[in-house]
Amino acid sequence: MKTTHAALAEKFIADEPRTNWHDETLWFVREKRDKAAHGLPEWEQLREWGSQIKNHTLSNLSNYLKEFEEKAVANGIKVHWAADGDEHNKIIHDIIRKHNIQKIVKSKSMLTEECHLNEYLQEHGIEVVDTDLGERIVQFRKEPPSHIVLPAIHLKKEDVSATFHEHLGTEKGNNDPQYLTEAARQHLRDKFVQSQLAITGVNFAVAETGGFVVCTNEGNADMGAHTAPVHIACMGFEKIIPKAEHLSVFLRLLARSATGQPITTYSSHFHKPRPNQEMHIVIVDNGRSRQLGREDFRNSLKCIRCAACFNTCPVYRRSGGHSYHTAVAGPIGSILNPNLDMKANADLPFASTLCGSCTNVCPVKINIHEQLWKWRQIIVAEGYVAASKKMGMMGMDFLLSRPTVYRFAGKMGRWLMRILPFVTNNKLNVWYKQREMPEPPKESFRDWYLKNGKTNKK
Amino acid sequence: MKVALFIPCYIDQFYPQVGIATLQLLEKLGCEVSFPLEQTCCGQPMANSGFASLSKGCDINFVKNFSGLDYIVAPSGSCVLHVKEHLKDEAHPEEAQKIRNNIYEFSEFLTDVLKVERINASFPYKVGIHNSCHGQRGLGLSSMTERMLPEFSKPEQLLAMVKGLQLSKPKRNDECCGFGGTFCVFEEAISVKMGKDRIAEHDENDVDYITGGDTSCLMHLEGILKRQGSKVKTIHIAEILNSSL
Amino acid sequence: MSAREKILNAIASNQPELTALPLMDKNVLIRYEDVYAQFKTVLESIGGKVKLIPSLTELKEQLIADKASGNFVVNAIADLGKLDNQVASFTALDLEKVEKAYIKGTAGVAENGAVWIYESQMLNRLLPFICQHLIIVIDIAAIVATMHQAYENIDVAKEGFGAFIAGPSKTADIEQSLVIGAHGARSATIYVVG
């Protein structure tokens, strides 16, 4: 078993000032989201529309995908289908080999992270340059992104400065974000103009028109896609929406939910390749059809990857994206990843207090915290929790479902705690590590009630 | 009005004063209060840990104790939410459903059912409010900053009736305290960090007390406050509404 | 079985029962008393510049002056002067040197400051992204309140490419500090004619 969220989080939190900074930075993004949402009186209505459009799409998904394919092919786009991450990577590798491509730029695509495309291509001696600034930073550092919208949010400008000094030769100790961004701009412009292949993600694919939309603030997807002679767009099949008019709902929700911007700087609508350009779309399943069949969890496929649930999550803000040890972290990741690998990700649905804030901010109304609860039940039923936990729970059930046992244990427990506090106040008691135990009262409420309660005792 | 009291297990065992205040206040407000004696726990600790399958015994016992009652009141948003969402009894499905409909969190029972407009209570202290997530988001006891809906708060509405009480809100008014049931031990580091951060915001407001409708949150905060050697105390909202200091 | 069939079959057997699309009542949408004022406020808040001009006269002069400066300036607006049609076949390497581009937009959106631009208005798809400074011209009558009206006024599939552009390129990937000019244009000035 990999290191768990709890252990990784504890490591993250050991640096408390940095944890505070991480928490406050993301809270600031959450507040910007609130402000943007409050700017639209129809916000809750928009969420409802977004949710219903996505529900409808999932209920007619096979037809929409076929319609999309047909239209896209008619537009001159080559459409590929990949059952899993490996097939996705091979399709891309084949295109690279066919054209003998050396220079590849990639804009943000969480799907390619999910499929570990970069690692796959690297093993075959092919280098991919990530062009989103945050992704380029973490790529230099050989780290995965810690956030699906803000990939380098776990880093401070000093870290970026040191990384750029090492890889781009920027001035040592110059931490000015403007200066560092400019250095990346120059470095990546070089990569763009020489690129032979641009890989992008897809935010929305429109069944009605056979086109797709890619949203960025930096313009990196466009710089690559309009330069390279080959463009490959990778999408999970849930990116489909029925009509172009539905883009209005989603583009209104997406950036406001993500960063509090009214819209991303660039919302690019691709329908046909340029003359002499090859345009490919890879439609990926990778467990999504299985998730679609899970009644309790299928609506996780409505996600538009805004990361509002990350920014609002009090656990995410204090544990960082890497503590989730998966490509998609945060609350949404914790309901998607058990479907991909239940055993490896059995800890994630428990990395939540079930506070419900994620569900409240979700622009397409995914009941994230309820799904976390439901995943816990399944993970336990499948036997992916420690035996000790199960024993504890069985003991708890024995005690709590039997009134007399409960009362006896209560008396014993309180009595023990009163005269022998070290029985519980020791290092084995995790509660006690940083918290005092509640002071045991002399009598339980029931005892008091039997003595003092009014005449209306039952 | 006949009311049955549900006193969650950890209140019964560790915070009887919360149960007592709830009982006394309901009686002061004219309710005829009963306390089914064989009650234990709603089963939430098991269910939230993924062992809902093991909470059947609790559920059956719960239904046995609370069947056929029109109003069931508990001083815990979290337990009430659990009952509302998950109480099941295969042998008595209708009874279970009725309980799910008839169970109320203490403060919403006062504002929505009893429609209390005045409370003869005084509490001359600076009090910070802690909104428990299950009460606020789960039961809708107050508006939430994430949602774009009109502002309201049932607990604040009640606390405003208390003489001498100076109410303050923390900066992040609906951030979770980090208790989270067994989360508090399985994710100990984050749980405590979240609690410390809540407390720091209340400290900024220089409060004497932190209050709320969920003793579980308060127990967690109290544990940290005591370890810090803080002068700030925790107190359940029922205790404040029942006090005449 | 091909991956395509495998996936489509799995989806068909796992997708839930058909639900309806929502009927979207556009009456609930936000309205602005002055769509131009809203457009300007929002665009300026996201780093764009907005100027209201009575006619193209001023811009024509500016274009002439810009071209005379010796910088690589591209005009993609027929009403302003001679079109630089040659850029249609330019490579990225050539376009990388473009200092400024003048491009016409089709629709402006008050709620977010975005302007829809068709590929044909760009001359070259890369132009509005790769230029250092972007000038966009729209008619005041083309500004609508929200994205809903904007999509009614455009046909996204009419050409091979089109984009909503809202202000200059930006990033906040380093410590959430906003920096204008990530990979695309360092500045975006929108001239509203009317």
Automatic annotation (TrEMBL), chain A:
Residues spanning the signal sequence: none
Gene3D superfamilies in UniProt = Alpha-helical ferredoxin, NagB/RpiA/CoA transferase-like
Query: Keyword Lyase: yes or no?
Result: no
Q: Which UniProt keywords apply?
A: 4Fe-4S, Electron transport, Iron, Iron-sulfur, Metal-binding, Repeat, Transport
PROSITE patterns per record: 4FE4S_FER_1 (PS00198), 4FE4S_FER_2 (PS51379)
Q: Sorted alphabetically, which Pfam families does this protein's record hold?
A: Fer4_8 (PF13183), LUD_dom (PF02589), LutB_C (PF11870)
Coiled-coil region: none
The biological process GO terms on file are: lactate metabolic process
Record bears the keyword Lipid biosynthesis: no
**What residues does the 4Fe-4S ferredoxin-type domain cover?**
293-323
One GO molecular-function entry: 4 iron, 4 sulfur cluster binding
Which InterPro entries does the protein's record reference?
A: 4Fe4S_Fe-S-bd, 4Fe4S_Fe_S_CS, FTHF_cligase-like_sf, Helical_ferredxn, LUD_dom, LutB/LldF, LutB_C, NagB/RpiA_transferase-like
Q: Which residues cross the membrane?
A: none
What protein name is recorded for this chain?
Answer: L-lactate dehydrogenase complex protein LldF
TrEMBL record, chain B:
Top-level taxon of origin: Bacteria
Where is the signal peptide, in residue numbers? none
Q: Tell me, what is one Gene Ontology molecular-function annotation carried by this entry?
A: oxidoreductase activity
Q: Which residues form the Cysteine-rich domain?
A: 3-83, 127-221
Name any GO cellular component annotation: cytosol
Instruction: Please give the InterPro entries that the UniProt record associates with this protein.
Output: Cys_rich_dom
| Pfam families attached to this UniProt entry | CCG
Q: What is the recorded name of this protein? A: L-lactate dehydrogenase complex protein LldE
| Source organism of the structure | Flavobacterium granuli
Automatic annotation (TrEMBL), chain C:
Task: Give the highest taxon in the source lineage.
Answer: Bacteria
* Pfam families per record: LUD_dom
- InterPro entries this protein is in? FTHF_cligase-like_sf (IPR024185), LUD_dom (IPR003741), NagB/RpiA_transferase-like (IPR037171)
Q: Which residues form the LUD domain?
A: 101-193
Tell me what this protein is called: L-lactate dehydrogenase complex protein LldG
Which organism does this sequence originate in? Flavobacterium granuli
